[in-house]
Amino acid sequence: MTVSAPQLVSLIAVAIGAVLFVVSLRYINLADTIDDVLRLGFAFPAILVPGCVWHFLRTYGWWISFPDHARPSFTRLFRVRLAADAISFFTVRGLTGEPLKVVLLFDRVPPAVTAAAIAIERTAFAVMAIVVSGLVSYFAVQRLPMPGGWDAVFTLVSVGAVLLLGALAQIARRRTGDYLGRFVARIGALTGRHLESSRVIRFILDVEDIVLDRSADPRGVEIRSAREDRARRRRQRRQRRVERDRPQVARHPAPKAIVRMLMIGRRAARSQRRRAVSASA
Q1: To 10 degrees, what angle do helices 43-64 and 111-143 make?
Q2: How confident is residue 63, by pLDDT bands cut at 50, 70 and 90?
Q3: How far is CA 74 from CA 78, 193, 194, in A?
Q4: Residue (of 82, 109, 75) closest to 10 by Cα position
Q5: What is the pLDDT of residues 194-220, one digit of tens each?
Q6: Cβ distance 184 to 195 under 8 Å?
Q7: Extents of the domains making up the chain
Q8: How many other β-carbons are positioned within 10 Å of the β-carbon of residue 17?
Q9: Using CA of residue 140, residue 146, residue 149, residue 151, what is the dihedral sign?
Q10: How does pLDDT run across 69-120, given as a tens digit for each residue?
């Protein structure tokens, strides 16, 4: 029985998790931990509610970021998210957790679709984080007495949040639907290299297309037309490269004299065969 990549990663993660759990039990006082939980009583589930709601909302935001035709089940995404976050807690956050989500969904969803859904969910989370940090900084400056240095820091955070949200709103309002494609085309024109022939570049451009498809925009027709134009230019460049690399075959017609001599030779051969057959008969 063959084991897929997501299954192999899941088995390795289970083994690592079991080892870390056993090591943690050896370094903590299990009796004191159980006593603390018993003292909390019915308050213990209430402590877990905020974290569960947090993971539920983040998973729901990720779930609706998938296209309708490639959307996995919510329970599957919830398990994948918990596994990726658990790995992120022990490693560099963002560098291992996000790629792990793509690997764990590799057998269910195309990698480009999963990466696009992650990008949309992370972008929405970043926007909300900017809004919350700006509001908290504003109320902290207005309501809390702080030293001069901290007052300036929170003021700069609130002003920076407003400016960043304004810049994002301007980009969203004036976007044309083709960002990385034009950038790659310009870099390729400057360097003289066909960057779109790289699998990594094609993957990034595919992710951008899916992100723009999933993003709400009143000018979706313009976005689709821009992507279709870029795809058509990409196919034309690929076709030109194929024709250029194809071995050139001489297409010049043979001289008439050579053609006439070949025809005369064929007629002579046929007549000779006929005489040989008649002589043998």
Answers
A1: 130
A2: very high
A3: 6, 42, 40
A4: 82
A5: 777 778 888 888 887 788 777 654 444
A6: yes
A7: 1-31+67-109, 110-174, 180-242
A8: 14
A9: positive
A10: 888 999 999 988 888 887 777 776 667 788 888 888 888 888 888 988 998 8
**Distance in angstroms (rounded) separating the CA atoms of residues 220 and 206:** 17
Helix then strand then coil, in percent of the chain rounded to 5, is 80, 0, 20
- pLDDT tens digits, one per residue of 220-256: 444 455 555 666 666 666 666 656 655 544 444 445 6
Nearest to 195 by CA among 243, 230, 247: 230
For residue 219, what pLDDT is reported? 43
CA distance 130 to 143: 20
Measured distance CA(87)–CA(15) in Å, rounded: 12
Q: What is the pLDDT of residue 154?
A: 78
- Tell me the angle at which helices 180-191 and 220-245 cross, rounded to the nearest 10 degrees: 30
Please state, in angstroms and rounded to a whole number, the distance separating the CA atoms of residues 207 and 248. 37
Assess contact for 113 and 70: CB atoms under 8 A.
yes
CB 3 within 8 A of CB 106: no
> What DSSP assignment string belongs to 144-166?
S---HHHHHHHHHHHHHHHHHHH
Calpha distance 190→187 (Å, rounded): 5
